[in-house]
Specification:
This protein is an alpha+beta fold. It folds into 2 domains: 145 residues, no CATH class; 188 residues. It is built from 11 helices and 10 strands. The strands form 2 sheets. The chain has a 7-stranded antiparallel β-sheet with strand order 1-2-3-4-5-7-6. Strand 6 and strand 7 form a beta hairpin. The protein is globular. It starts with 16 loop residues before the first helix and ends in a 14-residue tail after the last helix. The relative contact order is 0.12.
Length: 354
């Protein structure tokens, strides 16, 4: 089974008072020197091409004189907030090299390229419109995955750090050149990535929405797949939308798994990842439960999608545990409880967040 797109364009979901209080408590919400809307006031733009001269669907935007100086100073301050808790003194040698704007997709982000004048090294970060489901997705990534992630919120503006790695769609074109050993490692990591997405219901993880982080090892390389787009955190109604294995864009790695792994091996890696997620939940203490309590009360998706997903997940898990779920957050919470239990005990699933 494969499909190509969400059922309809996702509407932006506002951050409610409880979520905002949570973000402030854990230093995710801070006062920023500019807002997303400020960057829309650019005077001109040019298409950004890749090294082969192809349109990247990004535009490099330009601002007039004094306005540019103000914005660039503000963006350097934001970078300092991301990296050193606002200590701008450590970044006097940095400058804004370029601001790119993407009109493709829901987020329409600005990507800021910042460069070190001393050695020409560069980094990026993103300025986006804040959206509640995206914020839940980022926070769940930080709590439940092996990856730490930094983001900041102020009003309707979201700042995200750049996640380094090779874009999945670019990497897919090169996988055929990997050694058998590396192919096995890639297939293993995809199983784990697939499991992480399904446990916390992060959708739309086709190749261009994740990156491949490669670490050279004693023999071959180690691989980690990292989500870079959290727009579809528990929004769609189709269960398969939360399983990267069903996207045709991911077929090159999926076929490696079919070739090199048995069903017993796949099961082993799934259980390993569930065990790691359970350990992360335990390590997060009250923070995870606090987030889930807020998320279960939030309205993140239309009722028809909630009904569809809880029915499909009920059939998948062969349980009635989802029947009383009224929100996507409740479905996420029940799904996490189910996949982390060795035996499904329905009576104790939801009591901890009620």
């Amino acid at each position: 089974m494969a499909f190509n797109a969400p059922s309809r364009k996702k509407e932006s979901i506002p951050i409610n008072a409880d979520l905002r209080k949570y973000l402030k408590k854990y230093s995710r919400e801070v006062a920023l020197p500019l807002q997303y809307e400020d960057l829309l006031d650019y005077s001109s733009s040019l298409p950004l091409l890749d090294q082969q001269g192809n349109d990247t669907l990004w535009e490099t935007v330009y601002f007039q004189g004094h306005r540019q100086t103000e914005l660039y100073d503000a963006l350097k301050t934001i970078y300092a907030l991301l990296k050193t808790d606002g200590d701008i003194g450590a970044y006097h040698h940095l400058t804004i090299a370029r601001i790119d704007y993407c009109t493709f997709g829901n987020t329409k982000p600005f990507r800021v390229r910042i460069i070190n004048r001393l050695n020409d090294n560069y980094d990026h970060f993103y300025v986006k419109r804040a959206d509640a489901s995206r914020v839940y997705g980022l926070e769940l990534e930080d709590l439940l995955s092996p990856n730490r992630i930094t983001f900041l919120v102020d009003g309707e503006t979201l700042i995200e750090e750049h996640i380094a790695g090779i874009p999945g769609d670019d990497f897919m074109q090169k996988t055929r050149n990997e050694s058998v050993f590396n192919q096995i490692r890639l297939a293993k990591e995809f199983v784990k990535f697939n499991e992480r997405c399904f446990v916390r219901l992060l959708g739309d993880m086709r190749a261009y929405n994740f990156v491949v982080d490669i670490t050279p090892d004693i023999e071959g390389s180690q691989f980690r797949l990292r989500a870079i787009d959290f727009d579809q955190q528990s929004y769609e109604g189709r269960k398969s939308f939360y399983l990267p294995q069903y996207f045709k864009e991911n077929n090159p790695i999926i076929f490696m798994g079919v070739k090199h792994m048995t069903s017993e091996t796949v099961r082993q890696y799934q259980l390993e990842e569930r065990s790691l997620i359970a350990a992360r939940v335990k390590a997060s203490g009250e923070r995870f439960l606090e987030l889930m309590k807020i998320m279960t009360a939030d309205d993140l998706s239309p009722p028809d999608k909630v009904e569809q997903l809880k029915e499909e997940l009920g059939r998948h898990h062969k349980t009635h545990a989802f029947k009383d779920c009224r929100t996507m957050g409740e479905i996420v919470w029940v799904n996490i409880q189910l996949v982390l239990q060795k035996e499904f005990r329905q009576s104790d699933i939801t009591q901890e967040v009620n």
